[in-house]
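Q: Hi! First time doing this. I have a protein sequence and I read that you can turn it into a structure. Is that right? Here it is:
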Amino acid sequence: MTLTRWSPLTGLATLEVDSLNRMFESAFAPLAPGGWIPAVDIQETADKDVIVKVDLPEMKREDIAVTFEHNVLTIAGERKLSDPGEAATYHRVERGSGAFHRSFTLPSTVDGSRVQAAYRDGVLTITLPRREEARPRQIPVNG
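A: Yes, that's right. Below is the predicted 3D structure, encoded as structure tokens:
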């Protein structure tokens, strides 16, 4: 069991930054021609690693860029609208296409040198391991 000092400001600051990011993304996304915002799930494992899953259907690996710098994970890319061909036309287009850009501020306990990304079945999965020194460890009690 690890004891950590709880600070309401730390949690509040993270919530405020995420809230501002969402506000700006929703405010400016309609201004970008053809822009869209892919759905993202962020979870923390029992080992305190961070897993990010992004829905990117019908995208190619080469159209996706992932960067991690100064504890900020950025995912960007472009989904192109498929050409229905000469014999077909679209009657409705509801799925987003065009360029996108998502950024997330992550805790300083993430080890940026061991970040891994995999793309399979339209889902980009990014694994951000926790730094070894930030993992809880058992301390023997001598006596």
